[in-house]
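Aim 2 progress update. The chain analyzed this quarter is reproduced below.
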Amino acid sequence: MSVTVDGDKSGSVPGRLRRIVRGPRPERVPALVGTACTLIGLIDVAAGVFPRFRASRMHAVAEVLPGTLGPLSAALSLSVGILLLLLAHGLKRDKRRAWRAAVVLLPLGAVAQFAWRHSVTGAVLSLALLALLVRHRGQFAALPDPRSRWRAVANFVLMGAGSIVLGLVIVSAHPRRVVGSPSLTDRLEHVLYGLFGFEGPVAYTGDTDWTVGYSLGALGMLTALTTAYLAFRPEHPAARLTEDDETRLRALLAQHGARDSLGHFALRRDKGVVFSPSGKAAVCYRVVSGVMLASGDPIGDVEAWPGAIERFMDEAKAHSWTPAVMGCSETGGQVWTRETGLDALELGDEAIVDVADFSLSGRAMRNVRQMVKRIERNGYTTKVRRVRDLSDGELARIRRAAEDWRGTDTERGFSMALGRIGGPGDGDAVIATAHKDDAEGPDGAGAGGAGDGSASPYGDLKAIIHFVPWGPDGMSLELMRRDRAADPGMNELLIVAALQQSPRLGIERISLNFAMFRAALARGEKIGAGPVLRMWRGLLVFLSRWFQIESLYKFNAKFQPRWEPRFVVYRKSSDLPRIGFAAMQAEGFVNVSLPLPRLFARRSRARGPQPCAHLTPTSSDQEMRAA
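Predicted structure tokens:
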């Protein structure tokens, strides 16, 4: 998805945008309404489920809130409460469709209260909240988020599971009215029957049978209706890079790609893009969990960055997305904060090696030097070539190996991963490969064998490193993959080979991994570090068990790089947890979506070039491009 407008606004962002970002935020009413819906929804659910709640001191509060009391009113209270809970988040984010649903629900709730409970106060409060929504309807104008039919499947699973759990609570909430002593199996059977509107094996005295029956029926109806709504509503697919967008981005990278080592990663196909009015700059992004996540610096002429940033902020405001930038440079952070009023926080450091200064000699490189020599003595050889110099057969074999050697079911990478090898237009990328004949493996099985002397399906290929272009004289590390049966140290071997062969390819600088919180790790282990810094370093070391923060830093430090700081740009401190969670989703460390069945996933991968994460965490080589 791209936005282009004639004219040039390469100067500073107009005052209108400054007022949007820096002036009084018009979010107080949506936040108030969303909070009110949450509280009312919780009380309504409690009033519909727990009979003791209706007889407790909280009954005085529940009397004046939307909801009803009685066999049918309990189901109505439960339904209204759940729907308000579902709408609360959308109202807080200014969503127009959530506003429309609330406007329809509130008068229905008011009529139900007056008809079933004769509660004038409760009806008046419902109408007062309705009036507040109508009075501030202009603030609820955000467009829908990207969505697909899979949301209906997710809703059915989650709502169905939630209905069963809540149904068990409803069935068990009337112990004094239960006839006999039904088992858990009987209660579960009663819930399942009740969700479909049938009477189950559990019996009650008085009118409790009707209360439980209506409540379970309401849960089943809500699950069916919300699933049907999500299944049949129009799709709003996530933004994807079109062929025209990619052509324009490649033209910008050809002119300005040397400025940022992450520029080539803007060509990921799962990103959207907004262009500056002049078309001389662009910002690429992905929307994850309501966060509009950009990565790296804007692409193109620095003078035109403000125009692209303005378009990015306008798009975020139109959808009520939370704007954020991951891994921008110091220059990029200065422009973002100056033009939008956002804040920046140092996230870590990028390791950059200048080819002319690299050498294996000296005490500092002793460990790397010894490891490389040991591997070479074991019979491994290396090749460093441009992708365009590979034959079709060899490129296909490298793609298959990279896919099969991936250590996780989910592809990882976003800000520092391209997601493909050898795609059209990527001929300038560099691939370093390690090779060893299967006959030379231990016990005659080869590095890729299983100990039975069988040949590897990838021939003598044992490890792969893929670099993407960084301007005309640089390259940036994209992925590292190796056969798990190969000797440890394949990554060090191939990085050294790439550095040694770089002059032949015209490469003068190489960007390696990004090390999160490197400064804290480095300072925290020095003599004289204070208790707070040591405690912070200890926490990072503990988290490294899952995210390889410390191991990635130490891996980078082996090559004596220079460190370039990278920053996260955010709107307010309270957004940081949400931004962090969205970034982990984008990078593939957290997967909250339902995966395709394995059969369809294989067919999907077979349609095009294999997507590749930046690094497979295998055995001792668990360093990642972006932790």
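Residues 243-352+518-526+554-593+610-620 form a domain with the Aminopeptidase fold (CATH 3.40.630). Residues 287 and 293 are 6 Å apart (CA to CA). These observations will guide the mutagenesis experiments scheduled for the next reporting period.
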